[in-house]
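Appendix B. Chain record.
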Amino acid sequence: MIRSMAPKLIDSFKARIPLRRTADPEEIANVILFLLSDLSSYITGETIVVDGGLTS
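Structure tokens predicted for this chain:
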């Protein structure tokens, strides 16, 4: 979605992210894979924010 936005809007969005970039699809997928794996078997009822530290 973000790649279809105007470049100026994308730059202003990235300026609010401490990492100064948007996520790669693989970075989001890795969180999903973790949650689907046995490594997350003791996690319940959590919100996991994957936003690079986005500020309001």
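Further analysis of this model is presented in Appendix C.
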